[in-house]
Amino acid sequence: QMRAASGAPSRGPLGPPDDVVFAHIPFNFGHTIEKVALFGTGMWAMAEWRAVMMAEDAIGNPAAQWAVLGQTRQPSSQVWGHMYPELHETSSVTGCPMYFTPGKHWPQALADKYIKGRPVFGMLRDPYERLVALFRGELSGYGGSYPEFIRTCDVNGAVRTMMQEVLAGNPYAQGCTFLPQAEYFDPPHGITVPVDNMRFPASVNELFAAHNSTLRIHPADIMHVRLCPEVWAGDLDCETRALVKQVYARDFELLCKHFGHCDDEESCCIQDVPLMCPSHLNERRRNATRCPT
């Protein structure tokens, strides 16, 4: 019952929707979404996803990658983003893999093959909160490694350094993780169905339900950062926030347009994902940085 790469899409009762397709903005829980879409939920799915992703990255040949997927994927699954073999090609524009490259930079033939005329959904995340996650991830080549700041959990110093480097250097550095999310919404081939990352995983589960899928993402399925669990967006000072607003002005506009999150001084965290909010959250909210506008 698994469909081949060239076969017609199908969907079982536990499969993800086949009438939309996913665009992977880095550090927006994309790997969790891709894992569940391909292997379902639970610990077995996590182990299988890790093994297959490592195999795909090592193989580097689409035909061989599809063969691996054909042996391992769940019936009625969908191959999205990082798991889609042809998206492993390196973009001549960004230097990143196509799965992390905004769709507007994809060759037309690749976009046609992956999207197939379907609406494109993607996660939209608060820029402050997202940058805190990049810091807490401490992944060289994917969001960056900042050991001098990690040692003391100095999130403000790290994010300020990130923004200074972005403004002074290559916008596609660190696997395109510092690109504004708005770039992934630009036509052609951009996201047309934004999903609120602040309400993850409920927001994605609602999308699945709206497209007649009973597949659901549970907290135990979610891959998330773990270092420095007590830091959060409210720790960023006014100088750092000003830099974030400069780099991600369009992201704040999209959050306001699509979800009504129009306060660009709000400090937030994702309460339904483990370890994404500090303890004593109400007290931290009262003491969060708030800068004059």
Descriptive tags:
293 residues; mainly alpha; three-stranded parallel beta sheet; 12 helices; 3 strands; disordered N terminus
Description:
The chain has 293 residues and is mostly helical. Helix content is 39%, strand content 4%. The chain has 12 helices and 3 strands, in the order βααααβααααβαααα. It has helices spanning 30-39, 43-59, 62-72, 108-115, 127-137, 147-150, 155-168, 173-176, 202-210, 238-247, 249-259, 281-286, and strands at 21-22, 120-124, 193-196. The chain has a 3-stranded parallel β-sheet. Helix 2 runs antiparallel to helix 3. The longest helix is centred in the first third of the chain and has 17 residues, at 43-59. It starts with 20 loop residues before the first strand and ends in a 7-residue tail after the last helix.
Cα-to-Cα separation, first versus last residue: 57 Å
Count of DSSP E strands?
3
- Count the helices. How many? 12
**Strand and helix order:** EHHHHEHHHHEHHHH
Q: Which consecutive residue ranges, at least 5 long each, have pLDDT under 50?
A: 1-13
Helix content: 25-40%
Q: Give the integer mean of the pLDDT values.
A: 94
Largest sheet: 3 strands, parallel
CA-based gyration radius: 19 Å
Beta fraction:
under 5%
Structural class: mainly alpha
Output the strand order for the largest sheet.
1-2-3
Give me the secondary-structure topology.
Layout: E1 21-22, H1 30-39, H2 43-59, H3 62-72, H4 108-115, E2 120-124, H5 127-137, H6 147-150, H7 155-168, H8 173-176, E3 193-196, H9 202-210, H10 238-247, H11 249-259, H12 281-286
Parallel strand pairs: 1-2, 2-3
